[in-house]
Amino acid sequence: MNTLIKGLNVIIGEGVTIGENVSIANNVVIKAGVTIGSNCIIQDNVVIGKSPTRAKTSILPEVKQLPPTVIGSGVTIGTSSIIYANATIEDDVFIADLATVRERVVIGMGTIVGRGVSVENDCKIGSKCKLETNSYITAYSELGDYVFIAPYVVTTNDNYMARSKERLDKFKGITIKDGGRIGANAITLPGITIEADGSVAAGSVVTKDVKREELVLGSPAKRIRNVPESQLLRNQ
After folding, report:
1. 147-173 tens-digit pLDDT
2. For the chain, how are helix, strand and coil distributed in percent, rounded to 5?
3. Which CATH superfamily is domain 4-51+66-235 in?
């Protein structure tokens, strides 16, 4: 049975496909063409399929129309979250309140996107990741599976800090391989790679790549030891 629970002031665009047992709360906007799987929960004030608005000074190319958003089954989208057009949210993803997922983003199966998290455009997030409260995933980043991002982590992609046209073809986000972890309030510079099971201690500033199974600490972050065997992904 297709059980669709709709709150007040729900707007559903043309060509939207919604699976079975989907709960939709108040003031939700679902743009045209969006696909939503079964057993999903969409809470108050959510917008799904929003088209990006390009600033006059933006370096992003102007796009007239993006493909529609695809939401898998078993997904929860928290209050006042915004999922942009051409995003793909795979099965069993949990997106908490006030999160933003931009265009051309893929969020892998079973990943948790915490309260106030921003995932910028053109990112790929793997399965079973945890992006905790108010962390920021910069554009053009790629995270593997089982990646952990603690609260208030900041990633960056622009070494020129918005000055000079030289930067325009040099944007590069962060790459974190399977099992990589970053502690609270850490900052990563553009283009950093954290290899599998590499770990960054809280409050660190990462200016160089982090090797496999290495723990780094400080500003700038330096190796202090290997990650303990009991903490490695293969031993979980």
Report:
1. 999 999 999 998 777 677 777 777 899
2. 5, 30, 65
3. Hexapeptide repeat proteins (2.160.10.10)
